[in-house]
Design goal:
alpha+beta, five-stranded antiparallel beta sheet, 3 helices, flat
Length: 185
């Protein structure tokens, strides 16, 4: 009985350490294959496409009059966009991209699962911040009251520090007796 319980707990531990990452990795790859198959068959709504225009500073680029299918992805403004088509016109690369909601859900799920397993807060919107974080962090005896803090202008004539004796600073220029060396190397 103890052996079975130990094996069960080790399996749970190994899943928490690396298993969920592998599961989410394979789920993302499956979602990528499914999305690529839909894009290859042109099974998407044209109204969902997002156009990205990128200037290209490459001489002698050939302009293409029609779009060609391309693969890839980019994260822009927190959204994952899959490349669908591209063309080059007047020195600009024009990309038509489609938002990949399934992969974004998987990325969000892996982050939330990792945070919950490790005991971290999943989002700051759900947490209520204390009214004054300074009061909750430090004890009252270490935080000086505002009336105890004073600012003294440094240019007052006759200003003396009672607790520190006056010590003049040495001059910045120090005379060197003799000639400098000929070669420093």
């Amino acid at each position: 009985m103890r052996k079975a319980a130990a094996i069960f707990l080790l399996l749970i531990l190994s899943f928490n350490i690396i298993g969920y990452r592998a599961w989410f990795y394979f789920a993302e790859k499956k979602a990528d294959r499914h999305m690529e198959a839909l894009l290859d068959k042109d099974q998407y709504d044209e109204r969902d496409l997002v156009t990205l225009t990128i200037p290209m500073n490459m001489p002698y680029q050939l302009d293409r009059d029609r779009f060609e299918r391309t693969n890839g992805e980019v994260i822009m403004n927190g959204r994952l966009l899959k490349y669908v088509k591209r063309k080059v016109v007047d020195g600009n690369l024009i990309l038509l991209c489609l938002p990949d909601a399934k992969k974004m859900q998987l990325k969000k799920a892996v982050t939330e699962f990792g945070n919950s397993v490790n005991g971290l807060a999943s989002s700051s919107a759900n947490k209520k911040l204390p009214a004054d974080p300074l009061k909750t962090t430090f004890s009252g005896e270490y935080v000086p009251a505002p009336d105890q803090i004073g600012i003294v202008p440094p240019s007052l004539p006759g200003l003396r520090w009672a607790h520190r004796p006056f010590a003049p600073l040495p001059e910045a220029w120090i005379a060197f007796p003799g000639k400098p060396p000929e070669n420093l190397a």
